[in-house]
Amino acid sequence: MSTIGFVDNIAKITLSTPYAVGDVNVYLIKGDVLTLVDAGPLTDTAWSQLTAGLASLGYSADDIEQVVLTHHHPDHAGMLQRFSKDVKIVGHKYNQYWINRDDYFHKVYDRFFYQLGLESGLPQAYLSAIPKFKSPLKYMGYRSLNDAIKEGDFLPGLPGWRIIETLGHAQSHLSFYRESDGVMIAGDHILAHISPNPIIEPPFEGESERTKPLLQYNDSLKKLMDIPISYAYTGHGEEVENVHDLIPKRLAKQEERAKAVLGMIRGKHQTVFDICKLLFPTVYKKELGLTLSETIGQLDYLESLGAIRKEIKDNAYYYHA
Q1: Rounded alpha-carbon distances, angstroms, from residue 177 to 64, 96, 153, 269, 278
Q2: What is residue 1's predicted lDDT score, i.e. its pLDDT?
Q3: Is 304 a residue whose pLDDT tops 70?
Q4: DSSP secondary structure letter of residue 306
Q5: What pTM, to 2 d.p., does this model score?
Q6: pLDDT at residue 2 above 70?
Q7: Where are the beta strands (DSSP E) in 17-130?
Q8: Last residue of a domain, which of 199, 231, 250?
């Protein structure tokens, strides 16, 4: 755990996580309302680190008046239930499905991913493992969202902090931009050394089409080019000072990866699962949900360019160039 102290009313506290991504950053902001941005995973270690970090800044968990979420992933939202019922939980409306998981959530989730598995050409042995996609939620507590915020709103109790919708890595992802100095709290949308995985999620609000998170993510990156960002605090790792230099590099890297996938498809008819095994030969069994998301993202991207086509056969999609 590390705490850097307040800089212009923002302090970073770094917490351990049980995930491969490593440590997560949460932020304490002083304003009209004492606000914590993100909360870390539901582990005793993270709670001890958070309370120690707050103490080093002169506060306790009881002083927090609201927790604002960048997105619903358990390394960012897992520890919400440890906070007093008086603490307001604020974020994109889509957080509610994940932080207060009811029977409807599980029904929609399981049905969606089973169908996606069929369409991806998963063998039966892998289809039966789909419930394990939810295993990261082991470190996610239960809590309700108090206030839903959206694009163009300002953060409650923090004058001048504008909300920017940055969907892609998650369907609930928001970034927070302080207009006075161009500082942004970017969650997992902008990371210094890696690109976040755009993760496929079920449509919980009755939509019939799944989202295309990689296309969303690219659009959300391009959107930031029109915003005068001076400095970005990130969900993992170091801060980013040159956001507008980093974005073209991320987009170029994405195009390069897509070209490699196109080379794997050319001259063949392959399922998502076939391509996933080629892309991630050493980890697809262990991280099937994440690797399928990444593979489908690349295929969505190539399809949007007209570089590939798909046809359905025996319930599975086959891609060809």
Answers
A1: 21, 23, 11, 45, 39
A2: 57
A3: yes
A4: T
A5: 0.95
A6: no
A7: 24-29, 35-37, 66-68, 88-91
A8: 250
